[in-house]
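Q: I have 393 residues here and want to know how they pack in 3D. Can you give me a structure?
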Amino acid sequence: MARAPNGPLLDLTFAVTPKNGLTSAKRFLTEARDIRRWGRAWVVSLGIWVALDVLVQTQNYSWYREKGIPVPWPKFLGDYVDSAFWAFLTPFILLAVSRVPIERRTWRRAVPFHLLAGLAASAFWLPQLQTSRLVLAVFFDDASLFREMSASMGFRVAVEGLLLYTQVLAIGHGMHYYREYTARDLSASRLESQLAQAQLQILRMQLHPHFLFNTLNTISALIHKDVRAADRMLALLGDLLRDSFEKLGAQEVALKQELDFLDRYLEIEQTRFQDRLVVDKEIAPETLDALVPNLILQPLVENAIRHGIARRAGAGRIELRAWRDNGMLALRIRDDGPGLPTGASVSTRGGVGLANCQARLEQLYGRDHRFELSNRPEGGFEVVLAFPFRPCP
């Protein structure tokens, strides 16, 4: 993929497909006009080649001094000229790698391509090397430089050129594969995030009809007994639906918003049960601004009412507590109903609500959460959930 001119240095990768790999000369020339990017690439390439040459020549210099042999400064200078030549070619080689990488699906055409490109680079290097050695030999009056230009010089330059091209080619493939890996990793992360968001949205949308049908059933039961109460419940239902639709796209809301929504729902249920439903809340003030999953409390309280309060002949109590616990926000919903019968599983009581809440917590927080369901020793049922404490931004 091509990057903007202000992208990283030496970032000369472009998209390549089998169709346009060797026939995209027009696009190649268009992209090559980006002088600023190519200028930076050549500067960085020259700096790397010269730095490597300095390291090698420093070692050679120490060897010559240790052996008492005169230091061949013209030859050293000629090597720097060669480094400058390969520094100029390096960005083109890296571009060739991005255009025609050697991969399982492209190696049949990529290997001959790079072999020919390496020979072409050597062919360009030969006259440069001959010219530089000739100029240095004349300037420094050094006959040893003439001896380098023997009959076998062409073959030697071809071999050395292919070796140098292969080294740059290997580095280019390392860069290419790293970019491919990071791009695939980023794409996979984005897809995973989008999938998780879609799954969360589906889970939340399951709660809307579930809650709506239960509330409409309650209104239907009241409408023949207490018209005013049924009318009030319809008004509250309208408020609840409006509130839920306004936060339709939000996966998390402040705890105080979640409690406001829950209060409207409890008013509906208290209209239905009247004195049979008592609600105690103990909410730590510092938790009110903490983020919680949107619509997480209502199905848990509804579960407590349906299985705990509705089955009692007398009054029943629901307790709701929120507190901060070692960097976690802990929430607990208790009822004093019959609890689970001996030998029964939680799934027989949970229905859509508990299963949905557990799935949403897993999607939002992974393993960094708790969701515990149990009978209370003194009777009743208890749900405890905890997840990372994060204040609203």
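Q: Anything worth noting?
A: Residues 1-23 have pLDDT under 50 and may be disordered. The chain has ten helices and seven strands.
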